[in-house]
Amino acid sequence: MKIKSILSRTIRDRRLHSLWSFLNRLSFYGMNYEVASGYADYSGELHVIRSLKKYLWTIENAIVFDIGANVGDWSKFAIDEYSDLEYSLYMFEPAQNTFDRLISNISASTKNKFFKLAFGDSIGESVIYYDYDMQGSASILNDQNFGLSEKIKIDTLTNFCKQECISKINFLKMDVQGYEYNVLIGAKEMIETHNIDIIQFEFDSPNIENKVYFKDFYQLLCNDYYIYKILYNGFVKIEEYNYKLENYMCLNYLAVRKNCHLELDTVVSSWEVIFDWPT
């Protein structure tokens, strides 16, 4: 115990704090936190798109939603990867100039559908905030004190799908800057009736402004879905909730309905070691 106590005090010496701080940042980056989510081929989102192709291939006329499509960067990757699939891609962007750019960036096709619309937990109008046109971090939550804004239409996923006669969403991707939980609350009926197969959502600092915890996502989804952290080239399954998941550094997650027959390249081993250091 004496050796362990000496080692513990040495490790926690103030002179090593800068080293541990650097290694801490490096380790989070290695676990794919704070990697720019706007670049699907860099953040791991392209790996998700490719990992789901085999599953979507088994579905006749699969339905894919891109909520928070911005100018279509993610959608272009999906279109390229799913070019030989029978599917429909629904793209949603509420800001006018960004929506116009989205339409001009995506090639016309009967597979592609565009909607100037946001989603949330209620139907009506809201305001989206940004500092410049086509800003990727534009948000209904003005957590960064943006200088520009515009009114937008907002719907619930459940209502929209009823209006469009969509019985099931096979792949739902969201990047809505802290409003993801509200979108899922507006889709609760579809979640409970098993009508959304796979959900990709982002969890990061705007959720603080929205007063949303990761626990909220977990409790909403855990009964019907397996939940994974998305890495650059794989997945880490979350076996159970614990407080360490309350990490507001940007990371994408994947929720897969439990009766979906989907194979993912998950991390199956852990190097975690629990040290019983003296207090």
Model description:
- With 279 residues, the chain is an alpha/beta fold.
- It has helices at residues 2-11, 17-30, 40-43, 45-57, 73-81, 96-105, 157-163, 180-185, 188-192, 206-209, 214-221; strands at 62-67, 87-92, 112-115, 118-119, 124-130, 148-155, 169-174, 196-203, 225-230, 235-237, 251-257.
- Strand 1, helix 5 and strand 2 (87-92) form a beta-alpha-beta unit.
- Helix 4 (45-57) packs parallel to helix 5 (73-81).
- The N and C termini lie close together (12 Å).
Task: Give the termini distance in whole angstroms.
Answer: 12 Å
Q: Order of SSEs, N→C?
A: HHHHEHEHEEEEHEHHEHHEEE
Mean pLDDT, as a whole number? 92
- The total of helices stands at 11
Q: Assign a percent range to the helix content.
A: 25-40%
What class do helices, strands and sheet pairing give?
Answer: alpha/beta
- Largest sheet geometry: 8 strands, mixed
Rg (CA only): 20 Å
% residues in beta strands: 15-25%
The tally of beta strands, per DSSP, is 11
State the low-pLDDT regions, or none: none
Overall geometry comes to globular
Order of strands, widest sheet: 3-2-1-7-8-11-9-10
Q: Layout of helices and strands, plus pairs?
A:
Elements: H1 2-11, H2 17-30, H3 40-43, H4 45-57, E1 62-67, H5 73-81, E2 87-92, H6 96-105, E3 112-115, E4 118-119, E5 124-130, E6 148-155, H7 157-163, E7 169-174, H8 180-185, H9 188-192, E8 196-203, H10 206-209, H11 214-221, E9 225-230, E10 235-237, E11 251-257
Parallel strand pairs: 1-2, 1-7, 2-3, 4-6, 7-8
Antiparallel strand pairs: 5-6, 8-11, 9-10, 9-11
Helix pairs in contact: 4-5
